[in-house]
Specification:
Layout (H helix, E strand, L loop, with lengths): L6 H13 L3 H6 L1 E9 L6 E2 H13 L3 E10 L2 E9 L1 H6 L4 E10 L2 E11 L5 H15 L1 H7 L9 H16 L9
Helix pairs in contact: 3-7, 5-6
Length: about 180
């Protein structure tokens, strides 16, 4: 299906489908052995898990953009930004990172976060005031949303996060970055 496209066109088509929240079309650009991971990590998110992440992204209206692409044979390197309603509600407009996409035989085999960029507050910095509030006012809910401190990426969990964020905001969003 995608073998007549070059690596850049495949990555761009994947991002276009992801931004349109078309999960099936997004997945069509991923190899069956696809892995999304951080650089240096031995394991990551497989194609099935990526389906759940894309459903999460649909619920939080995630939008990705890129700049400064560099194509090296079957690899696409670049600066990628993501904005979404979760970030905005926590007080950060977007996150930036350097990503590498490895494309083989017309499909993305790997998506690697080389490093997170920026000198502003990190996602963890922005999340901390919300988690502190939730520990006090909604401890059972936050444990369900983040079992053992790990965010579970599903559409239903995204809806639950947004619902709890509604309550935090109704309580004045104490400690939110940027006020």
């Amino acid at each position: 299906m995608n073998s007549h496209f070059g690596p850049q066109e495949i990555v761009e088509a994947f991002l276009e489908a992801a931004n349109a929240h078309d999960i099936d079309k997004s997945l069509s650009y991923l190899d069956d052995r696809f892995v999304f991971r951080e650089k240096g990590a031995a394991t990551g998110m497989d194609k099935r898990s990526m389906s759940s992440l894309l459903a999460w992204d649909r619920e939080i209206d995630s939008q990705a953009s890129y700049e400064a692409l560099e194509i090296l044979e079957e690899e696409v390197h670049g600066i990628f930004s993501e904005s979404n309603s979760l970030y905005r509600r926590l007080g950060i407009p977007k996150t930036d990172c350097r990503l590498t996409f490895r494309v083989r035989e017309g499909r993305i085999q790997e998506q690697i976060i080389d490093y997170v960029m920026g000198d502003g507050p990190t996602f963890d910095d922005a999340l901390e005031p919300f988690l502190s509030w939730a520990d006090e006012y909604a401890p059972d809910e936050i444990e369900e949303l983040q079992p053992e401190g790990v965010i579970v990426f599903t559409a239903e969990m995204a809806k639950s996060w947004l619902s709890l964020l509604d309550r935090w905001e109704a309580d004045g969003a104490p400690g939110r970055i940027g006020g």
